Amino acid sequence: MKMDNSKSASVSIPCSTSYILSALDFAERLASETGFSSTEAEQIRLGLEEVIDFVRSYAHADRTSAPIILHFEPQADGMQIRVLEKGIPLNFENLPEYRPEKLEKEAPELDGLNLFLARKVMNQMMFINRGREGTEI
To answer: Which pLDDT tens digit goes with each residue over 54-74?
Structure first.
């Protein structure tokens, strides 16, 4: 993978579908342009889409006016993407957890599916409480 890790990009978008789709297009294109394969670029897009969906569902609820800030930092061994939001404070101890083994035993419980999918395609995911500045994922 060819890299120039001195470059990074940030974008602040409203929490609305058209802007989110444009940001996802940007993330996928940036990944492709910085040396990721098309499959890897699609996985980056999927992971980011699921994280943003989580933010919309839990932290922003009905607040589409609150912005989501995305930081992209291509690195020699991958890409760091940070998602910052100032929605409802999250209790990191009680994040929804999707358990695929439950699908066979009981009615499907889809809470946490977005974080489950994001973790499947990303190498690492952390939640950082920034206090009044919101949450960083």
So the answer is: 888 776 665 556 789 999 998
